[in-house]
Amino acid sequence: MTFTRVIAAAALCAALTAPLAAHHSAAMFDDEKVVELNGTIKEMQWTNPHIWIQVVVDNQGQKTEWSVEGGSPNTLSRNGWRSNTFKFGDPVTVRVNPMKDGTAAGQFIGAKFKETGKTIGRWE
Amino acid sequence: MRTALLAAAACAIAIGVAAGQANKPASGELPDWSGVWQMVGPTVFDRASVQPQNGRAGDPGVREFPPLTDEYEAIYRKNIERIKAGTFPDPISVCGVPHGFPRIMNVPDVYEFAVTAAATYVLAENGPGIARIYTDGRKHPPAEELWGTYTGASVGHWEGDTLVFETRGLKESRDNDVIIDRTGLVLSDAARVTTRLRKASDMMLEAVMVIEDAKALKAPWKVTKQYRKMPAGTWAWDYGCAENNRNPISGSGKTLTIGPNGKPLDKNTE
User: Fold this and answer.
1) Set of chain A residues whose Cβ sits within 8 Å of the Cβ of B182
2) Model confidence at A21: pLDDT above 80
């Protein structure tokens, strides 16, 4: 797979995956796996109980839209996030704990903006 | 003359009680718990007994060790197995019910504590949740007037700068519709919680809770939670849980994830 890179190092995962202030069970996410998405932002839903970042990944013409779940805007805003942190068309690399069943969704870990090199979340 | 003085003293006491003065701290001033506070640590309710020590609530195999009766230990073990199977939903996931007590003292995001002479209000941003603790001299309603509610009925008084309150009238967990935390702990409708809430330092509030439950516990269970003061000017915000809840619960108790087309992404939606 060219558009995702699976990082299976458990030690790295443990360091990256502190619990989110989720309002639901996180049983659907595989917190021992990190997937790196290289794509562009379609939308950020700055809403409670979780923000959602829709990322479109283009794999040699085959586009896949990922749904990436973050914390609440309340907590994120207290940590420097804003409602326009991710803008339509931003080229990004986003790291997630993917869903266990392989569907195109995951729990946000961190992101790097390709144009500025800035990062947000946990990024090492 | 002596009779007149006694009558005057009795009147003064009665007026003081009516004004709520009898429930003020010994100093005569209400404590300053202003500001925004955040619970210290993760949402495992009893961090002193959790195994493994850094286990997170909701992770398979993580549990605490309250002095549960055999009946409630069996319920807890069943819930732990459901967590392992991914079919133990958090009741607040539906965005329609409160956390309840004592869970309201164990939630993420932030808190405010509004202290007045007549009542103290615990305002949890997450949920949102409110616990009302009346200090106006009232007693708990008689048993025949109480029914089980998520947050129960709390009545308190001041001992110095410590707010001491008892919570009763709590809703019994039916099919885990109210829980203490995501490890699967539940209590019965016999639960009563005595809480001592005080400012341990300028930057830390502390709640020491002693839970008694004739059905669920063999002995009183003591749990301490702490809340660290956030920087001055920190905001607490509206938390509209139903605004964009993309995590409905399936019939088996599995938490689903809604995709951009409004349908579950999960391969198995049962």
Assistant:
1) 25
2) no
